[in-house]
Specification:
Layout lengths: L1 H17 L49 H17 L3 H10 L7 H17 L2 E8 L4 E2 L3 E4 L2 E4 L7 E2 L3 E9 L3 E9 L6 E7 L11 H5 L5 H34 L6 H37 L4 E9 L2 E9 L1
Length: about 325
Amino acid sequence: MKAFRKHCRSTAALLIAAGLLPSGAFAKGPAAPAPAAPAAAAPSAAPSAAAPAADAAKPAEGEAPKSAGEQCSAAYERTQMEKLAGHYVAAKEAALECSQLQCNSAIVQECVRFYSALEQETPTLVFSARKAEGGELTDVRVEMDGKVVAEQITGRPIAADPGPHNFVFVHKQRGLLRLSETARVGDKARVLEVTFADPNAKAATPDKAQASKPGVPPMTWVLGGIGVAGLAGFGYFYASGVSKYNDMNASCSPNCNPDDVDPVRKKFTYSYISLGIGAAALAGAAAVFFVGRSSNGKTVEAGITPQPGGAMAGVKTTF
């Protein structure tokens, strides 16, 4: 009879340890020590419990302590709910919790499967910071969505939930930099790099002499050349026409042959046209020069249109 009672108590202890029997079912009678769960109760693929979640499973003050089976069921349900919500990091922690040896084998197998899938799907990020003048920075604090995820850059990957995130890289001497990136399912060791400006670098300032005295616009030289050529043409044609006119006035006036008079008239006409072109070109060159020096980001266009008895110059400025 004593052997039968001892056998029953041992069987009950095994059921309680496996989570298949409430712990209060055998409250009466002397308590038999529960033997350790056999090694075959958990598959070899289960992640090792480096940090058991016993503290998280502590009941609130005034509540009855939860049994091992209840804790396992709660962690299993939390694994699925967190993944559906897109919280892959929290889901992986819950899967690790419910894959411990105190859970029954069926739950352990499911949690191990969830943990393995989440390990492959959860994105990981690697932070990097560089100096603008060359070299890397490690004394940089990294914040993700308002929470500090790294006090300094170590090169180790950080797990993140899939989706958009806002990052802040903070350096004591160089200030802070902001970065927005999207973590994608399955991304592994994706590098997020920022470059801090050199705090000792001086901003380049434009030369004041060059800024106050801009160069001569090219159109000024072109119009100036045309103006000089026009004045030279005026001088040539006018002088030639006056010389020919004086010769004819002394030899045949007033009965000169019309065929001889016509070339003289043309010389005077050519001289007046050359004078008009030269004057208009010089006026345009002056206008382009002054407008170009006083305008910033403006386009200056000039043109000359021949007219009967002269020419017309125009200057167009586009703001």
